[in-house]
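User: Hi! I'm working on a homework problem where we have to compare a predicted structure to a textbook description. Could you give me the structure for the chain below?
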Amino acid sequence: VLVQLSSGRSSADLNGQYHVVRQTFTNGAGVSSVSDLGVITFDGSGGYNESGDRRTVAVSGATAMAPYVAAGSYAVAADGTFTSGTGLGAITADGELFFAVTTSGPSAGLVVGVRRGTGLTAGDFVGSWGLVGADVVHGSGVGLPRYENDFLRAAVTSQGATTGTLVGTSILITIDPLGASLQTPTLNDQFTITGDGSILGNVGNPPP
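Assistant: Happy to help. Predicted C-alpha cells:
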C-alpha cells in the first residue's frame, strides 16, 4: 500500500463509516492467522467503533468464524500519518482511504479501509484494474504452509446495476517447503455489488 503524504490533515479527516479488511499473521510453532471483514466508524475526533466477521485459522489449518466488535482511539498527523494502538500508516488527502501496519510480539498485520459509498453500481467500476492478493494455506502436511502472491491485470465490465465480470491474466507466485513456482492463470470471475460498495464474489485466485 502506497499513500502520498500531504499537509493540513487532522483526525477530522477520518469521519464516518469505512469498509475495513484486516489480516494478522502470528509466527510461533507455525503460522496462524486472523482475518477481519467489517465496518469501522470514526467519530472525527479520535475515537472509533468497529464490528464485523472474524475468521481464525490455527496452525493445523482448523478454521473458526465469529462476529467481533472493537473500539479504540486514533490520530491523524498534519502530514496524513495515521496511528491507532500499535498501528502505523497513513490516510489519503481526501480521507477516502487509510491503511496501517500493526505489530505485537510474534504477530504482524495489515489494515486497509475504504469509505463506504452510496448509490454505487457495477458501472462505476468499468475499466482496467490492477489487483494484488496474498493468501496463506495453513497446515502441516506435504507442501504446507503455502504462501501465494497474486498480481492481476483485469478488465471490469458491467452486466447490470449490481453485477459485473472481471476478466484478465494473473501472475501467481507460490512458495512452500518444497520450493517456489510461478503460474499465469487466466481470470474470469463474476461479482455482485451493493450500493455501499460491498463486493461479493470470487475475485482473484484463492488457494484451494
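For your comparison, note the following. The two ends are 26 Å apart (CA to CA). The chain has a mean pLDDT of 92. Good luck with the assignment!
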